[in-house]
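Deliverable D5.2: sample structural annotation.
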Amino acid sequence: MTEIQKDSTGLSSAFSAYYKDDRSTEIFFHKIEYADRMVLNIQFNGVMDTTFEIPISSRATINYSAALSNSDSDLGVEPVLLVGNHANMKISIVAAQIGKLILASANPKSAILSIGSKWFGKGDETEDSDFEKLMFILENTKKLL
């Protein structure tokens, strides 16, 4: 994994990582932060084929600490698929989990998430590595937030 690189304005940060040190797939994490929203890009060998809007309401942010005590509650994060396969539930779950990370971050704000879905395989089939891949993406996304 390489070190997080920031531009001179501090608005953009990025780094690359490899899942289980597999050098055949470079995963590039990039964040651009604006005053009222952020853009997150997660590329797999340079490919992003799915885009979500992740709205974070101020009410959800205020109620976040209350929701932590009740693990069954909805944290108010409902990603909206803008571009991509509506039938791919895996990538929708990944987007929802990233939304929860954003909500729990120091500066929660709405986001546009562009991500490559093919790395996760077919959306209607499960694989043994699905959870490990999700955790890898969440751990690295958290580093940017």
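Annotation notes: Residues 5-144 form a domain with the Ribosomal Protein S5; domain 2 fold (CATH 3.30.230.90). The chain has four helices and seven strands.
The annotation will be released with the project's public dataset once the embargo ends.
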